[in-house]
Amino acid sequence: MRACERTLREDGSELANVLVTIIKMYEVMVTQVERIRQRIALKRKRKDIQDEWKFAAQAVDRFCLIIFTIVFIICCSIFVFIPPIKILD
Question: What's the pTM value of the predicted model, to 2 decimals?
Answer without folding.
Answer: 0.57
